[in-house]
Amino acid sequence: MTEPQVHNAAPPVRLGDRLIQLGLISQDQLRIALMEQKNSGKPLGEALLVLGFTTEEAMRSALAANLGEKAISLKGIVANQAALALIPKALAKRHALFPTSLDTRTNELVIASANPNDIVAVDQITALLAGGPSIQWRLASSAEILSAIEQFYGHELSID
């Protein structure tokens, strides 16, 4: 009887270590950011941005690499009306996601998300689009996503 083979996946590289590997920050900058994180309770990425040690674009790329995802910038994009029509504004706002494009040839919808690993959002979008296009998730900053939602979905009048 043979023993089952166990494959030990390498542990993910921590964000700070990834940024150092990419030459985006120094060991000293990481140390300072970790102290800021401890004092403020903010995520490390946010601490690095507040301290001015890295840019949002560099952070997004490093996070995407860490998560095994692809990154996308929403700055200067042009809204794809077919993609927007598939995802209601309320759902987009609730989960901080934005449909960027719909490729009718491949039947693929690209969705930018601040958290592409949000299981609830993935499940809701998958159920909504059942039998429709396949979904390609991309990592984007929540600030860019919220700005795109406000810009491209339009404004609704509401009485509070």
Please tell me about this protein's structure.
The protein has 160 residues and is α/β, with parallel strands linked by helices. Helices cover 47% and strands 13% of the residues. It has 8 helices and 4 strands. The chain has a 4-stranded mixed sheet. Helix 2 crosses helix 3. The radius of gyration is 19 Å and the shape is elongated. The termini are far apart. Residues 2-7 have low confidence and may be disordered.
Give the mean pLDDT: 84
* Principal-axes shape call: elongated
In the predicted model, the low-confidence regions spanning at least 5 consecutive residues are 2-7
The total count of strands amounts to 4
**What is the ordering of alpha helices and beta strands?**
HHHHEHHEEHEH
Q: Structural class per helix/strand content?
A: alpha/beta
Our Rg estimate from Cα atoms comes to 19 Å
Helix content: 40-55%
Strand order of the largest sheet: 1-4-3-2
Question: What are the main properties of this structure?
Answer:
alpha/beta; single chain; elongated; 160 residues
Short description:
The chain is of the alpha/beta class and 160 residues long. The protein is built from 8 helices and 4 strands; from the N terminus they run ααααβααββαβα.
Topology:
Layout: H1 15-21, H2 27-40, H3 44-50, H4 56-67, E1 70-71, H5 81-86, H6 89-95, E2 97-103, E3 108-113, H7 119-128, E4 134-139, H8 142-153
Parallel strand pairs: 1-4, 3-4
Antiparallel strand pairs: 2-3
Helix pairs in contact: 2-3
